[in-house]
Each structure stands twice: as C-alpha cells, then as structure tokens.
Amino acid sequence: MTTDTVRWGILATGGIAAAFTADLIDLPDAEVVAVASRSEVSAKAFADRFGIPRAYGDWAALAADEDIDVVYVATPHAAHRTAAGLCLEAGRNVLCEKAFTLNLREAEELVALAGEHDRFLMEAMWMYCNPVIRRLKALVDDGAIGEVRTVQADFGLEGPFPPSHRLRDPAQGGGALLDLGVYPVSFAHLLLGAPSGIAAQAVLSAEGVDLQTALALSWDSGALAALHCSLTGGTGTTASVTGSRGRIDIPSGFFHPDRLVLHRDGRDPEEFVADPADGPRTTFRHEAREVMRALRAGETESPLVPLDGSLAVMRTLDTVRERIGVRYPGEGVTVRETSRLTRLVPSTHGHPVR
Which of 69, 240, 248, 257 has its CA 20 to 30 A from that of 186? Predict the structure, then answer.
C-alpha cells in the first residue's frame, strides 16, 4: 500500500468477476488496474468493457504486477488453489472466491502461503460482510433470542443444468454443495462455530457430483442445524435461527439480505431493514470495503471473515462430501454408498432428472 487508493487486479473474466468489478469501479477509493485470463482475447475484452488499463493473457503476469495491491480471484473453485497460490507467492494480497478451495488441504496450503509471505488473504464470503447479517450476528451474540437451539437455511437453483455445465463437472468442483451449500454451512458456522456431528444425504448425478444435498449438523450445546442445497429446484433461500427466547427470520435471499424479522417472546415482531444508502442487496461493495479497510490497517486477515473460520467451513464440507461419496479428480475414486444415496433415475417427463 503506497496510497489511500487500493489498486485491484482481477483474475478471471466470468460473470462474478464482472459483477465484482462493476461495484469496485463505483468506489472512489478503489482502482482496477489490471485483469488476467488464460485467454488474451477474453482479458482484453474485459478490460475494454470496464476501462481497465492492463490486460494479461496469463495469470503469472498479473501476479507479478507490482502496481497491484490486491488480487480478486474469481475462477471456478477448482482453480482457486493454483490461482491464489500463484498470487501469494508473488507477494500479492488476495481475496479468493468461495468455496475457498476444493478441500481443506488446499485451503490450509493457501493459509500457510499467506503466512509465509506475510500477505493478506480472505475468502470472498460476502454474506459475512452484509450489514443485515452483521446485525443478525450482533443480536444473537447479545442474547436477543436467548441460547441458539436451531438453525435452518436453504439454497437451490431451478436449473436444468446439462452435464457439460461447470456445476456438473467434477473437474471444476461441480455439485450443489461447494457452489450453493457453502452458504447455509457458513451461516450455521457464523452462529454456532464448527459442529461436533455431521450427517448428510444426497442425490448424485451420473458424473458423480451432488445434485442436491441435505445436511443435519449438531453441536455439544444441543443446537441443531437443518440445511439444504440443490441444483434441481429453486428454493426460497430463506434462513432462520431459533433461540430459547425468540427467533430471527430472513424471509428470502438470506446470503445477501436486505431485511430480517426479530420475534421475541411477548413482543411484537421487529423488522430491521438495510440502509438504502448501502446500495442494492446484490452489491459486493461491503466485501470490497472490508478488504481495503484491512489492507490500510496492515492486517493480514479480516475479523469479519477470519481464516480459521474459512478452514472450519472447509473441514465441514470435506466431511459432508465423505458422507455422500463425492470425490474430485486427484482426490481418489468416487464412492457411491447405496445405503445413503438416492440414485439418479430417468425422468418420466422427457428430460433427465436435474
């Protein structure tokens, strides 16, 4: 950091990279100075679209650019370890999309690299930076609903997704769990920490990734979580946390909420609504601002998205995949345990079951 303006590099040129970059260029204290893709044509098209001065046709060139303060890694998560690791080794700070990596081993390697090079590293769990989620966390921590008893959350997309889609491609870390389930799992971790017990069931695709997964998590306190993710149907994306003296509901879009409702015993419901000045509920500005705040403060991780928390979530996701029999290339042979899995069967409606 040499100035008050934080200079960003964007690694990858897909949809989420575009959405994040669009929010970045609206921030007066952020400057996007470079973008990289494995395709020079794609990088140049992205740079032209957003007015970015430098476009690189390989990731290493971006990582070596010393005018960059922090790199946003927006590749599919199967490439996170390689892309983020390259940047950390070159001395760049990194904001890496979620799921943090494919597995805990890769996540631990990134954290070790960040420590070795004294660089900032954060998983891009934008939900944790959302003002409404931060309000919910404060309410729970302050005892507004008493001791937490249950957590519920779901995230499902309607689809259908063809076998060629990245969400069904094992080589790209496909499946509902890492793309969508990371949100319900992270929500439960935010409120209760790492669970002591994990049970899961799933429907697997012909490619061996999970089309939908149901999770039951438990804690030594007696708290339970019922979580669900799916590529086979659009869910309400709602969340709720119930305590011994009340409940907090997020009616929809729990991972980027604009309101919550607090129910307390003997009182009328209270609604907390996001400040319109904070921007639309889909904004990535809160996450970007937290990264820039931490960099200016000389911090190597964010207290809102701590690395230990990201590692704990990856440990839970690894255990869930072990339970449901999903393995990615390089991790071993996929094991389908018929006693715990529902089979993908032909649809009676003229198209594959999604």
Answer: 69
Please tell me which residue, 352 or 189, carries the higher pLDDT value.
Answer: 189
What is d(CA 226, CA 145) in angstroms, rounded to the nearest whole number? Answer: 19
**What is the tens place of the pLDDT at every residue in 98-112?**
999 999 999 999 999
Q: What is the pLDDT of residues 195-248, one digit of tens each?
A: 999 999 999 999 999 999 999 999 999 999 999 999 999 999 999 999 999 999
Tokens 């990535």 correspond to 284
DSSP track, 207-246: TSSEEEEEEEEE-TTS-EEEEEEESSS-----EEEEETTE
φ/ψ (deg, to 5) at 166: -60, -30
Pairing of strands 210-218, 197-204: antiparallel
Q: How large a percentage of the chain has pLDDT more than 70?
A: 93
Cβ–Cβ under 8 Å, residues 19 and 83: no
Cα four-point dihedral sign 275, 297, 291, 1: positive
d(CA 95, CA 125): 10
269 and 261 Cβ atoms separated by less than 8 Å: yes
Cα–Cα distance, 102 to 15 (Å, whole number): 20
